[in-house]
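Query form — protein Importin-7/11-like TPR repeats domain-containing protein

QUESTION: What is the three-dimensional structure of this chain?
INPUT:
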Amino acid sequence: MLPHPHSQLLGFYGDTKRLNTSLPVDDFEFRTEQFLPYLESIFSLLFQLLQQVTECDTKMQVLHVVSCVIERVSVQIRPYVGCLVQYLPLLWKQSEEHNMLRCAILTTLVHLVQGLGAESKNLYPFLLPVIQLSTDVSQPPHVYLLEDGLELWLVTLENSPAITPELLRIFQNMSALLELSSENLRTCFQIINAYTYLSAAQFLQNYAESLCRSFCDLLKDITTEGQVQVLKVVEIVIKLSPVQGSHMFQPLLPAVLRGIVDGERYPVVMSTYLGVMGRVLLQNSSFFFSLLSQMAADLHQEADQTLGSLIEMWVDRMDNITQPERRKLSSLALLSLLPSDNSVIQDKFCGIINICVEALHDVMSEDLDSGTFKDCMLMSGMEELKLTEDEEPPTEQDKRKKLLALEDPVHSVSLQQYVFEKLKAQQQLLGETGFQALMETVDSEIVRQLQEFLQGL
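ANSWER: The structure tokens for Importin-7/11-like TPR repeats domain-containing protein are given below.
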């Protein structure tokens, strides 16, 4: 049984040192539903306490408990935060000389934004200047505030219902942050992704050039893990905005293409290279072929020779790709080269079919009743985000990702159907005899498995 928190709190006006251990919100066995009847009174008392205590350390302790309460009850805090929302700007102003107290305020704001969700937009007049100051490396307080400020920036974007000019403007802080190459880089990349999910067109229109410059500089001197993180951002941008994204990151892409052809030795880097190039080939093929021609010229080769080397390495290194989504992406990308009467593509036909069958094994599930297969990567707009009891409700960004996934070929195109249509188109192009000769280059067991997947189409 939960101790009555109301009576416990009343004693803390005289003794705040026991505050952190008073409320069982940090307890492993804490049950939110038992706490809810006391939430309004407890939050009111905590707020009164926060106003009345004068020492910074004590205010920080109170804010810590406030944060814990908000974190525990999540969206159910919404009816009770009005007073806190009105008071925090004043407390922020009063704490100008107390950076550790400001850190505590930032942490409270993180939980508050998560609890408010899309309603957090009402806090922007206070919230955005706080983020601006905390993440501006030209301002001395950033030394203390940066980490929490970045976290607040990220959750603000994740819970934002729509982009605003002010929210967009804060991104001006990012170039200097990327130059730091600090332990906060991962959060910076998450922030960039969040802007892309929030409003790719507006974001890229304003910041594509500076972001590409920052990434080019970063890639000159960064760990393998950092390189992968940069390229994952590139892949997301191209996925969401194939034309604009490809042009935006054009300076980076020749190195990616070259890395594939040269057989990049680190599997995780190679997998990321193939993910990026798979997006370009599948979603912006004209750009892909211009990139290929440019590289062929640099290598003093014919474009077909370079294409042959690329496909060969792609097929050979498919095992570097472990995620089913990326394996399906590579299959869709290479299949997009069909139908073709190009001798190089026909020469690599066997390899393309091999990886497609591998990917079909990855993504197809069999309906035992009907004996037919379906692509388990396909998503429909009818699906709801299913939550377990312990899961948080979806953020605005979760909802955006779901909607954007519906437009992603990986989640909207059936690999089974795509293989069937491409093979049929190839057959029509070459005629029955030519097509049969092409199919004979494929191992008979692979052909048998392929036919099994395609039965009923």
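ADDITIONAL NOTE: Confidence is low (pLDDT under 50) at residues 1-18.
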